[in-house]
Amino acid sequence: xxxxxxxxxEVALMKITYLIFFLFLENLYGATISKDExxxxxxxxxxxxxxxxxxxxxxxxxxxxxxxxxxxxxxFLGTDKTERWxxxxxxxxxxxxxxxxxxxxxxxxxxxxxxxxxxxxxxxxLFNKKLGHCRGTGVIQLINDEWKISHYALTMLVxxxxxxxVGAQTQxxxxxxx
Length: 178
Hints:
six-stranded mixed sheet; globular
């Protein structure tokens, strides 16, 4: 139990160190570039920390920290067509997965962030041992000076070469579940 807390502390310390380092680079880099060249955006850094933390919390099974990253009125869309949950409904679904201290593991392969001011949206390619490559998409809003996820959707990525087979299997499964 102590090693888990120590690891979480070390991960948090590492993220803070990275944030300070990037802010230092932003100030250093910003002082030497022309106005036409893009600067490192502090909001992108904070949003990356939020999302990386979300995936780390899920991996570590930290229910409280994981769900504190969402807004109180957030919506989560899972991979099944029936999985459209308010954040409170999602907590009920997720609680058993977190009870053993493991949650679920998705490794970030790639992430894109767009937006400005108080609303950003993102898409990320993730890898999960059971599901393979997936895509997470979502909306992040600045609420009371804190970035919160207000919408998250997880989808499985299906290669075009097998899409018709997967579609046929999906239709077959839908018939059985009526």
